[in-house]
Design brief:
The chain has 12 helices and no strands. It has about 200 residues and is an all-alpha fold.
Length: about 200
């Protein structure tokens, strides 16, 4: 029975890849309705050329999500890119920083200035959702749900999801991102992504 389930999931993953591939080729921003993740938001902050000492303080800081929120709010005068973030984006950025800072050595302000930020910065919850969740079902199933972190982690720890290659911390980052940014109303989802419903 378990081998049948694995086989069927494999078939669904292949079919999903075959269906999603052409869809991505047709339009690059079909997923634009999904809020930006922390990696994208942090890349925007870095690209705005904040003062080097402010960027260094972020890159070397170790804080909880709540501590990062307070810290970032206190830095909006010196780091003008933070002023352009909505409250939800600020919370998403703080959440991302709580999982990923401090960055490993070799990722200082000068290094990031020269780097392709999409590769230099760790992936965020949005990245994980798009890369890992669509193997067996359409992204709508994930992004339209309103669930607490324990419920998301419970689903991710089920046998059908435990094979997904994400570390414990990456699963927690994905769950946290979905709590902050999930629950998107179905009418905000592009019609071509509405098939498949929004429940497990």
């Amino acid at each position: 029975m378990n081998s049948v389930r694995i086989f069927l999931c494999g078939i669904v993953m292949v079919c999903g890849a075959l269906l999603v591939g052409p869809l991505l080729a047709q339009t690059k921003d079909v997923f634009a309705f999904i809020p930006a993740g922390g990696r994208t938001l942090f890349a925007q902050v870095v690209a705005s050329h904040p003062p080097a000492d402010e960027l260094q303080a972020i890159l070397t800081g170790k804080r909880t999500q709540v501590e990062w929120i307070s810290y970032l709010r206190g830095k909006t005068r010196n780091v003008t890119a933070l002023q352009r973030l909505s409250e939800q984006e600020l919370l998403t950025l703080a959440d991302y920083l709580s999982f990923n800072m401090p960055l490993a050595s070799g990722h200082g302000p000068a290094d990031l200035a020269k780097a392709d930020l999409t590769k230099a910065l760790p992936p965020d919850g949005r990245d994980f959702a798009l890369e890992r969740c669509q193997g067996c079902h359409i992204i709508t199933v994930v992004i339209t749900q309103v669930r607490p972190v324990p419920a998301w982690l419970g689903t991710m720890n089920k046998p059908s999801h435990s094979r997904i290659k994400l570390s414990r911390e990456q699963r927690e980052a994905l769950a946290s991102y979905l709590v902050l940014n999930g629950g998107i109303p179905i009418d905000q989802v592009p019609e071509e992504l509405r098939a498949g419903g929004a429940s497990y």
